[in-house]
């Protein structure tokens, strides 16, 4: 499918699909209720997920203690992309999928994007297409199979199975699915809100081969191509990086405890929202959904709705002709292992209003004031639309000049893109925001 034909097909799928999403009071949730003892917002089946409370105490960051709502979804979902050689070129089977929290509603998702509750049909709805390629006696060769985390500020220990399976079989094509090359997907990643978060995280885990033909260009693209090669110079060895991550876990204190939602302080529960008293961070809302594109025709559910758009960015620098990205060893209360590597900047700037001087995130000003000629990537991307309502972040890649210091801070290190790719073959090293930017970096050369 040529790319211009894809856009026509995608627009046609948007016209054919119907998904009406309305915000409703909590009292109109069907199958959900607040536990009378704890106040936790739960599903009557005991499945899907629960909105409960979290208490955090730490010496990391500007706030030493807080409580907050958190999504507890202990089951592991599947994010799977089926791939196939077509005329000698690897293609990915992608789905045009509507989610209630997406803006716009229709975005490009993996072949299979389903929680355990969904694909075991707790909702008593239809089956998940192509699921047989990813569970049980699979019908293909596994290229990627790794557990990866999701947002550590909103999920408690949430993980999904990121899996890529190659098939040689004839695959019947459902109307909402299409075959696209990796090059086409990387091109689509340059656009706002087309490729969804779940597709981006799986794409980031694919161990791309080293591109050929860096040529004589000494600019950004040539430095990026060298950054993708395993035999090019790195500022830190992989052993040094792993030791640094371990040291970060021992340098800070983090105590996290699940608590009843009733015990969360600084948040106010109303008829249709659970919101922060200062109007920051996010709120918990309820929505009613009706449509013709999902396994069930109508349902209600809670969603987390951020109050503002965030900024997520990698600073990059050419070091001896090899592009390096500045990663941040970041602590978030929902991580299973305390620390994951994040982008240089990952924040919602408005959340820092009113905090003490010096609380502003490091390097945020370098990102926001970067001259246009140093901005290598700049797009707004949506976060997971099945749990978050219109959550979007501005993702950026900014190249700094040669005078920018190599010793940034004890919580930051310069890594090549190849090192990021190697770490992505293992669980719990790169967070979901860093995985998005890694996927986007592959499209820049």
Question: Tags for this entry?
Answer:
36% strand; 17% helix; single chain; seven-stranded mixed sheet; alpha+beta; 445 residues
Give an overview in words.
By secondary structure, the protein is α+β, with helices and mostly antiparallel strands. The protein has a domain at 220-254 and 307-441: Nucleoside Triphosphate Pyrophosphohydrolase, CATH 3.90.79.40. It is 17% helix and 36% strand. The chain has 9 helices and 25 strands. It has helices at 3-16, 116-119, 182-188, 197-204, 220-227, 238-251, 364-368, 417-423, 432-441, and strands at residues 19-24, 32-34, 41-43, 50-58, 65-72, 77-86, 89-98, 106-109, 112-114, 141-149, 155-156, 159-166, 177-181, 254-259, 267-269, 274-276, 282-291, 298-306, 310-319, 322-331, 339-342, 345-347, 375-382, 392-399, 412-416. The longest helix has 14 residues, at 3-16. It starts with a helix and ends with a helix.
Summarize, please.
The chain has 445 residues and is an alpha+beta fold. It contains nine helices and 25 strands.
């Amino acid at each position: 499918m040529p790319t211009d034909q894809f856009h026509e097909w995608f627009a046609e799928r948007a016209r054919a699909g119907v998904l009406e999403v309305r915000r409703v009071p909590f009292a109109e949730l069907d199958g959900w209720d607040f536990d009378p003892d704890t106040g936790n917002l739960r599903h009557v089946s005991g499945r899907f997920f629960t909105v409960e409370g979290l208490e955090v105490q730490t010496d990391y960051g500007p706030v030493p203690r807080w409580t907050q709502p958190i999504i507890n979804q202990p089951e592991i979902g599947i994010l799977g992309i089926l791939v196939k050689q077509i005329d000698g070129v690897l293609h990915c089977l992608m789905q045009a999928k509507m989610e209630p929290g997406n803006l716009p509603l229709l975005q490009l998702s993996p072949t299979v994007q389903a929680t355990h509750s969904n694909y075991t049909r707790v909702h008593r709805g239809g089956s998940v297409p192509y699921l047989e390629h990813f569970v049980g006696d699979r019908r293909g060769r596994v290229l990627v199979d790794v557990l990866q985390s999701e947002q550590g500020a909103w999920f408690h220990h949430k993980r999904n199975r990121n899996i890529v399976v190659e098939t040689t079989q004839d695959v019947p094509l459902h109307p909402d699915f299409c075959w696209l090359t990796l090059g086409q997907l990387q091109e689509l990643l340059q656009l706002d809100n087309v490729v969804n978060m779940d597709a981006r995280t799986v794409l980031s885990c694919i161990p791309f081969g080293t591109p050929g033909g860096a040529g004589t260009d000494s600019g950004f693209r040539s430095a990026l191509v060298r950054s993708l090669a395993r035999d090019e110079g790195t500022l830190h060895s992989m052993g040094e990086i792993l030791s640094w991550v371990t040291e970060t876990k021992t340098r800070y204190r983090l105590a996290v405890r699940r608590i009843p939602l009733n015990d969360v302080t600084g948040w106010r529960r109303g008829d249709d929202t659970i919101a922060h008293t200062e109007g920051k961070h996010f709120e918990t809302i309820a929505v009613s959904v009706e449509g013709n594109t999902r396994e069930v025709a109508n349902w209600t559910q809670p969603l987390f709705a951020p109050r503002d758009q965030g900024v997520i960015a990698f600073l990059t620098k050419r070091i001896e002709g090899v592009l390096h990205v500045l990663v941040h060893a970041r602590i978030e209360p929902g991580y299973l292992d305390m620390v994951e590597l994040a982008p240089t900047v990952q924040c919602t700037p408005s959340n820092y209003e009113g905090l003490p001087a010096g609380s502003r995130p490091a390097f945020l000003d370098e990102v926001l004031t970067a001259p246009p000629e140093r901005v290598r990537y700049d797009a707004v991307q949506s976060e997971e639309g099945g749990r978050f309502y219109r959550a979007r972040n501005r993702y950026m890649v900014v190249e700094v000049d040669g005078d920018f210091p190599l010793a940034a801070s004890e919580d930051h290190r310069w890594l090549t893109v190849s090192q990021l790719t190697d770490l992505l073959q293992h669980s719990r090293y790169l967070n979901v925001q860093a995985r998005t930017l890694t996927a986007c970096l592959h499209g820049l050369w």
